[in-house]
């Protein structure tokens, strides 16, 4: 009779290299996490940290200032106090604030034009300039004469006219005399326009 054969034990299956690496990494990560957790639990808090946290979670309301006694002035609010800022005039109702009266308009009197123009009482004919006569320059020169309240010319200005004839016209205008212009019964300063003709 033949004896039964004893089965030969088979070696355990070998893990693939990649699977073995993953298992090792997972074990290292788990061990690191456990060590970090233990380290954090053993860190002592800085002195006063717990008290500060409790004070922040349960703040104590500010104490109200004592009411002033009779005859005492109330304390002035500090700059930056939100309560004081809320009581400033800028934050009050605008309807309760008094309105300032609008400034009154100041009217300045504008002098009215003369009711009577100046009247020449003495006229002077300008001499013909020799240079203009030799050049046969002729024409009209218009001059504005400013007359004071006494009827005396104080300034003469040429408006238009030939250049060679202007100086002679200005000199003649300064020798004119006027009955001054009047505003009502008062003599006033005015202007008079004179035209001087030059003919050869």
Description:
The chain has 200 residues and is of the alpha+beta class. The protein has a domain at 119-198: TolA/TonB C-terminal domain. The protein is 28% helix and 20% strand. The chain has helices spanning 17-41, 49-57, 82-86, 130-134, 163-174; strands at 119-122, 139-147, 153-160, 177-179, 181-183, 186-188, 190-198. The strands form three sheets. A three-stranded antiparallel β-sheet has the order 3-2-7, covered by helices on one side. A two-stranded antiparallel ribbon has the order 1-4. Strand 2 and strand 3 (153-160) form a beta hairpin. It is elongated. The model has no long low-confidence stretch (mean pLDDT 74).
Shape verdict: elongated
The H-and-E topology, N to C, reads as: HHHEHEEHEEEE
Largest sheet, in brief, is: 3 strands, antiparallel
Structure classification: alpha+beta
Strand composition percent: 15-25%
Number of DSSP strand runs: 7
The CATH architecture of the domain at 119-198: 2-Layer Sandwich
Keywords summarizing the entry:
200 residues, alpha+beta, TolA/TonB C-terminal domain, three-stranded antiparallel sheet, two-stranded antiparallel ribbon, 7 strands
Question: What's the helix and strand layout?
Answer:
Blueprint: H1 17-41, H2 49-57, H3 82-86, E1 119-122, H4 130-134, E2 139-147, E3 153-160, H5 163-174, E4 177-179, E5 181-183, E6 186-188, E7 190-198
Antiparallel strand pairs: 1-4, 2-3, 2-7, 5-6
